[in-house]
Amino acid sequence: MLLSGKHFLFLTLAWLSALSMAEFQCGRLDEKLLYTEKENAEPSEHPWVGILLEDHGDRHENTRCSVVIINERHVLSTATCVKPFSNRSGDTKAVAMLGVWDETDAPEEELSCNDKGFCVPGPELYKVVEIKVHPQRDRDTGDNDLAILRLEKPVEWTNWIQPICLEGTAEPDTLTNRNLHYTGFNHGGAEKGKGLVMTVSSQKCKRLTSSSVLVPVNQLCGYPVKRTKFYPGAPLMDIDVRDEKPHNFYLVAILVRNVDEGQATTQVYQNVRRARSWIMDNSK
User: Fold this and answer.
1) Calpha distance 111→108 (Å, rounded)
2) How far apart are CA 195 and CA 193, in angstroms?
3) Boundaries of each Peptidase S1 domain copy (predicted)?
């Protein structure tokens, strides 16, 4: 039986996916993709970021929030992002769309192709059956803006759906003055994006965001190279270096909001490192 070009490509992608999973590791990175000024991520780059949807029965609404895969049954987002989902267990109406490259693609599409004919498997949907908000979330200051979402079924790992690492083997004491990576979806285009941000001191953060915007103790500010506004929940990542080589990405924070002040856009992140014990205890 002759195969169409798309079906042949799909089989090739499935084979490559199976091959890559034989060498599976969390936070997978390709070193050559680090040294580029591209603002769009490759389809297989940062495979732990997805989009939070709201189930309306006959359709799924994009909440403009990202989720981050931390293991086969849990994703991480902000508490603010899950606020519309009042039912915290069972049928939450929340859905995680994973393996997504172009946010306009529908899950029922077998392949997702760009205008140049490059195709990857379409995204997959996972129902959220439980939502846990950080117990020390402060509604007044916005601190500890974190939520763990439990999925109805285990995630099926592919080359385009994998978790991020939660820890590095040797981490710096401070996140100030660090050149870090972030990824996710944004208001600048439909495809998965990426960028670099320089984290700044709390004093500089106060000046960048103006004195009217207070940054809580467990949050930090980043000054991005580009002003593109990414969705809340976007992961901020550092790189674990082993034997003098970049080994994998690990999660240090997630985006909670963007602040425009004058000619600058500042990204405000929730520090995940200080919440790791809570995340690990509640995502077993």
Assistant:
1) 9
2) 7
3) 2-284
pTM: 0.89
**How confident is the model at residue 10, as a pLDDT?**
46
d(CA 142, CA 151): 25
Query: Domains in the chain and their CATH numbers?
Result: 179-274 (2.40.10.10)
Contact between 76 and 147 under an 8 Å Cβ cutoff? The reply is: yes
235-247 pLDDT, tens per residue? 999 999 999 999 9
pLDDT in tens, 170-208: 899 999 999 999 999 998 889 999 999 999 988 888 887
Look-up: residue for tokens 């109805």? 152
Q: Is the Cα dihedral 258, 261, 262, 263 positive or negative?
A: negative
First to last CA, the chain: 46
